[in-house]
Design goal:
Rossmann fold, 22 strands, Archaeosine Trna-guanine Transglycosylase, Chain: A, domain 4, alpha+beta, about 25% helix, 10-stranded mixed sheet, 4-stranded antiparallel sheet, about 25% strand
Amino acid sequence: MVLKLPPALIQSLEGIKGFDKEAFVAVHEKAEAITSIRYNPSKLSTVNYQLSTEHVPWSNNGYYLPERPSFTLDPLFHAGTYYVQEASSMFLEEAMRQTLDVSKPLRVLDLCAAPGGKSTLLQSIISSDSLLVSNEVIQSRASVLRENIIKWGSANVVVTNNDPKDFQQLQGFFDVIVADAPCSGSGLFRRDEEAIAEWSEHNVQLCSQRQQRILVDVLPALKEDGILIYSTCSFSIDEDEKIINWLINDCQLSTINCQLKEEWGIVESNGGYRFWPDKIKGEGFFIACFKKNDGMEFSYPRMRAFNKATKQETAVLSRYLDNPQQFEFLPLTDNLFAVPVELVQDVTLLKSLLRIRYAGIEMGTINKHELIPEHALALSVHINKTLPSAQLNKEQALQYLRKQDNLQLELNGMKGWCLMQYEGVNLGWAKLLPNRINNYYPKEWRILK
């Protein structure tokens, strides 16, 4: 099916650096489906798995696929060994590495984070003693974000469900803010034909105004000399270059240049970087990096002493982690959570100010000195590798992921809580009883296909 591009869009792009009308229209008429994934480096070491060898040039773990497989029917997808992400947006990795020392502890806010592609990318490149706050304002999308963060398995993350203005309570707190702003979506026309019908010049203006409001609301939370990385999947100059001008002139920010390789095909434009789909292997994308030239220095407010697990609870929980001494166990909800020791003060502060949907590793609850484990613990990269486990073949793994209880396994006398594994990677929990196996895969995550 040939995509019919809005004439007003084509007209608005005339004169923009790198725009080639004939090539731009042709690549949309071709409607080539490009699929790319990004491997999880924290889980890749546990499995010998390769879907492709064609590398995304600006991402250490990004790869193009020759065709789109059924990810739903791949157990390793559900285990969080890779994330399906559009290749152009993986350039965030290059932007982070070129503007920051990612080996140092950083406080990073991914402001518009759902469904989680950029957050999981950020978790893969920041240091383990850094903090990632992954935020989504829409509640239903925050649930999807939480799911993908859990699958990725890292512990130095907090998922929040807040409006950008709520972060003004944290003036000067963040070293980095990533704002992949809601936009008119013209860069994704090849992937989403419905976006073409929704596109209009009026909607571009509404998006531009919304982007400015979001940025004004959140900028107080960025420290002086902190880094803002702004991106859209729009071609429209009102959402891209004009936002750069506004940030420089009205918000006291200055652009930071990234070094590009000519073979990448990325076009520099007004201090930002455009990804034209006729010049790169990916979709339309725009990204720009800024340094904040003023701001308040963050200071911790007075806080009440935080609650933490009892000695007995800590003894039970510690058996489930590889390095339990690196964590503090906190009752953030009815469940107990493992939070890296160096992040406890920050997590406690965030809990007092924001709507937290997830933090660290959700361990579970303790009943009569036994842990009733949460699914997040099974997918954590910090789980104790010596816990009881059962190896499933692909058919059994898909049965488990459909939350079927009639699994036929060789139990070899095992009983109680057991990790279900496929290719050596954890899928979740089951409880082994004398005459049956109870499947504890989350009902809301099960495969329906």
